[in-house]
Structure formats: structure tokens, C-alpha cells
Amino acid sequence: MSNSAAQHILSIYQRHAQTFAEQRSQSLFEQRWLEKFTSLLPDAGSIVDVGCGNGQPIAGWFIHQGFQLTGVDGASAMLERARQQFPAQRWIQQDMRKLSLGETFDGLLAWDSFFHLTHEDQRSMFDRFAEHSHVGSALMFTSGTDHGIAMGQFAGEPLFHASLAPDEYRALLANHGFGVIDMIQEDPHCAGHTVWLAQRAR
């Protein structure tokens, strides 16, 4: 499947925001990883959730834990739902590939969002992560298990996913000053997600 399918991701989520809200698990199977992530942050620290969707359940969990949450998503229909649920937080419409907020955060999250980018766009995202982090910042994202492209389906439409190889992710993290804190492939305690947790050391 051509990388052109990746260009339709935002359109799919924009048109099917209601379906996403209905189908997205609210069980917080991610909580163990969210707790690992926030253990690296200061109390009431700042978090940018890149590809935050409608804010549930992950952004909502951060907010209830007392963190200062900035949610970024390219689909306005998703953000409108987030604003309705959490009007006191900051929600910004921006394509993550062009992320430019002019500030750094204690934590950066790209959960089930970053993996919708092409290989080249994923490589470029590490510049964006570095730009929005400082020494001590935590970064967590999900990926595939090896280099490749996988097509899923959502609301009857093809849904693009891609991944780099683990060694390339490690190299990109290291080249941008991040050290890997933890990484589990297809974590059986997290619905089979492959999760990376890193922290910026320089």
C-alpha cells in the first residue's frame, strides 16, 4: 500500500469522530505505562499529548492527576469533543508533523498517533520532540515491532500504520539526547501495544 494512504488519516478521524468516541476503549489498559511516564515528571508538570484525539481516556487521566495538559490534534472534530469535556485545558489544532508551540514540556506523549506517519515523517518527528523538550523531559510513544507498513481499517476505511525498526528508534532517540528507560514489544498487559519510554539526558 502506498504511503499516500497516510495523507488521509486526519480526514478519516475528522469525519468519524463520533464513531471513534463510541469505539475507543475507556478501560485505561494504558494506566501502568501512564504511571511510569508520570513518575518521571514533577508534580503538576506540563504534558503535551500529541495526537490527543477527543481527550478520553488518556488526557482525561492526566488532568485528573493534576498535570497541566496541552492537547494537540489535527482533526478539529476531535478537539471540539475534548474542549467540551475539559474546557479549562488548552487544545490546539495542529498537524503533528508541523508541531511548533514555542515552548518545552516536562512530558511528551504520542500514543497511537505517531504510528500513523510515514517512515520519513516519523524520523522527522524526533526533531519536533527535541524542540519541545528539555533536559529531564519524558517521551513516550507507541510503534510497531519492526520496520514496515500495516494497513488496518476504521469505520470501513483503510487506516495507515508504519513503524521503523527498534534499532532505528533507539538511534533516533540517542541522536536527539534521549535515553531509553523502558521498551516492551507487544506488551500483553497493554492490549499488545509496543511502547517506548525515554527521557532526555542532554
Structural write-up:
It is built from seven helices and nine strands, in the order H-H-H-E-H-E-H-E-E-H-E-E-E-H-E-E. By secondary structure, the chain is of the alpha/beta class. It has a single domain, classed as Vaccinia Virus protein VP39 (Rossmann fold, 3-Layer(aba) Sandwich). Strand 2, helix 5 (76-85) and strand 3 (90-93) form a beta-alpha-beta unit. It is globular. The mean pLDDT is 95. Residues 47-132 form the Methyltransferase domain.
Characteristics of this structure?
31% helix; alpha/beta; 7 helices
Note the overall shape: globular
CATH fold name: Rossmann fold
CATH class membership: Alpha Beta
Question: How would you classify the helix and strand content by structural class?
Answer: alpha/beta
The proportion of strand residues reads 25-35%
Biggest sheet details: 7 strands, mixed
Q: Let me know the average pLDDT.
A: 95
The second-level CATH architecture is 3-Layer(aba) Sandwich
**Rg over C-alpha atoms, rounded to the nearest angstrom:** 16 Å
Q: Summarize this, please?
A:
This protein is an alpha/beta fold and 202 residues long. It has one domain (3-18, 29-200): Vaccinia Virus protein VP39 (Rossmann fold). The chain is built from seven helices and nine strands.
Please render the helix and strand layout as text.
Elements: H1 9-15, H2 17-23, H3 31-38, E1 46-50, H4 58-64, E2 68-73, H5 76-85, E3 90-93, E4 105-110, H6 119-131, E5 133-143, E6 148-154, E7 157-163, H7 166-175, E8 178-187, E9 193-200
Parallel strand pairs: 1-2, 1-4, 2-3, 4-5
Antiparallel strand pairs: 5-9, 6-7, 8-9
